[in-house]
């Protein structure tokens, strides 16, 4: 993925209040499994899964499937290390590397 395509993917993933809340909750509380995270944020598990998938595709979170002591599969998510700095220069560089053509 080019730097320009990566920037668009990350910005698209951050363009939603639920996803910002997910990142904030994971930053504040550390890794968490889907059911507990959904309760903490106050959204349904299916909706949370959609947002987590978008964040994971952008490389902002990672997931790990683990078994509880009771044998139940729990999908844990945590923030992936990332740094985002958007400057006029970084936008020029990103635009030069875009592979996707967009139309109005």
Automatic annotation (TrEMBL):
SUPFAM superfamilies: Winged helix' DNA-binding domain. Transmembrane segments: none annotated. Gene3D superfamilies: Winged helix-like DNA-binding domain superfamily/Winged helix DNA-binding domain (1.10.10.10). One of its GO terms (molecular function) is DNA-binding transcription factor activity. Residues 9-93 form the HTH arsR-type domain. It comes from the Bacteria. CDD domains: HTH_ARSR. This is Helix-turn-helix transcriptional regulator. It comes from Brevundimonas goettingensis.
